Amino acid sequence: MNFKIRTATKEDCKEIHRMTMELAIYENMLEQVTVSVDDLERDGFGQNPCFECLLAEVPEEHKSKEGHRLVAYALYFSTYSSWKGRAIYLEDLYVMQEFRGNGIGKALLSKVAEMGKKKQCQRLQLTVLDWNKFSRDFYAAKGAVDLTESEGRHCLSFYRQSVDNLASEAPRD
Questions:
Q1: If you compute the radius of gyration of the chain from its CA atoms, what whole number of angstroms results?
Q2: Active site residue: 73, 76, 89, 139, which one?
Q3: What is the reported pTM?
Q4: Given pLDDT bands bounded at 50, 70 and 90, which one contains residue 157?
């Protein structure tokens, strides 16, 4: 299938949001999505961008059943390891169902790795849901190591209320 990978622009945020919602539905976590198109515009394309995003675009003749030409995305950001140095965190890699199996996911993952290499990153990190064997196998086939198995590491998150609670306990200057 013919497609191109390109860097997202502010004008793409509506489509990025659409695909984010599709990913959340696929992962059975739609109720957890609180980010809006405006948030994406501000956080990705404002004065201090928090993330970068790559898109897969197909030509008009290959658009989706719903008429979409943007059919996949990879949203990532820079992070740092006190042990390894610079790193890239891949927050989302999503390919619309009807476009899977055409090399789009591999192309996006490879492009994110290339971007990380240009930034002298030592590691590409991501998380995968335990039930998503297809994705776990996909990443493993590309060389990813499951740290839950190999090092016993678990991915933890503090959500808004917990962050608020912790922040309220911070020492005052």
A1: 17
A2: 139
A3: 0.93
A4: confident
